[in-house]
Write a structure and sequence with these properties.
Elements lengths: L8 H10 L3 H17 L3 H28 L20 H9 L1 H5 L3 E5 L6 H14 L4 E5 H13 L3 H7 L5 E5 L8 H14 L4 E6 L13 H13 L1 E5 L5 H11 L16
Parallel strand pairs: 1-4, 1-5, 2-3, 3-4
Helix pairs in contact: 2-3, 3-6, 4-6, 7-8, 7-9
């Protein structure tokens, strides 16, 4: 083929499909036309097309990871009112969202606070920020994941099910306290915690402090071992604030025109 030979556009598109280069397939015609008009060298044209493919590939990857993460909608850091939660440092949260050091080390994140206090919002918002920075995250109610792992155990596939979760750099277990206190549930939960220890990260939201986790793990030795594995390398965030939902109910009873007695979150958490 010489420089003057016509381009077989249909064949080129097939080749780009085969190479899985959808951005270049979409852009090559416009870019080559511009390159011809402006006299670009071939290397500049190739570089421009490659840069767009990489950029769009990254965006497609983020969109896939967002879809698989199952994050609750609307829970963003921009929508979280840090002024209403003075125990939480915004700078510290932003450092967590950067993610590189603690996720690479398989460290954990634990968020304590009352029901409606913003734990789920903050955990989900951190998860969203991590996905935008290239990490893979799974958000799930603890009871939902435990039930799936129980099914896997009955099918003699628990180890494989836990191994499949390794693709997620972070699993967010929401509402730990609602796990039923029985041996099968606590057993699979403990196995998940143990399997990810110092390898992959877990984030947990919980209403109860560690001293009350014997209500979750009926075996004291299991409770101690679970807490030890979670806390060994962890960041603990305490949201010691009044429930937003309770505050909202009181404000509605008070009626319009009467200011709230304290700051509340701008968007309803949890």
């Amino acid at each position: 083929m010489t420089a003057s030979d016509p381009i077989d556009a249909a064949r080129l598109n097939l080749l780009l499909n085969e190479l899985r280069l959808p951005a270049i397939k979409h852009l090559w015609s416009a870019f080559t036309e511009r390159a011809d008009k402006e006299g670009w060298p071939a290397a500049r044209l190739l570089s421009a097309l490659a840069e767009h493919e990489i950029a769009e590939g990254g965006q497609r990857r983020i969109e896939r990871h967002l879809a698989e993460a199952r994050l609750p909608p609307g829970k963003t850091l921009a929508g979280f009112n840090f002024d209403a939660v003075p125990t939480i440092s915004k700078a510290r949260v932003m450092a967590l969202v950067a993610g590189d050091s603690w996720l690479e080390a398989g460290a954990n994140l634990i968020l304590f606070g009352p029901p409606g206090g913003g734990k789920t919002h903050l955990a989900a918002a951190i998860g969203l920020g991590l996905i935008e920075n290239g990490w893979r995250v799974l958000f799930t109610r603890t009871t939902d994941l435990v039930q799936k792992l129980q099914v896997a155990r009955r099918e003699l596939a628990l180890e494989a099910a836990i191994t499949r979760l390794d693709k997620y750099h972070l699993i967010i277990l929401d509402d730990l306290a609602y796990v039923t206190k029985d041996q099968p549930e606590t057993s699979v939960l403990f196995e998940l915690i143990s399997a990810r220890y110092e390898r992959r990260s877990i984030a947990i939201t919980a209403n109860q402090p560690f001293g009350d986790w014997n209500r979750i793990f009926p075996d004291p030795a299991m409770t101690l071992a679970a807490v030890d594995r979670l806390v060994h390398h962890s960041t603990i965030l305490e949201l010691n604030v009044e429930s937003y939902r309770r505050r909202e109910a009181i404000d509605q009873q008070r009626g319009p025109g009467r200011p709230a007695s304290r700051a509340t979150l701008k968007t309803q958490p949890d």
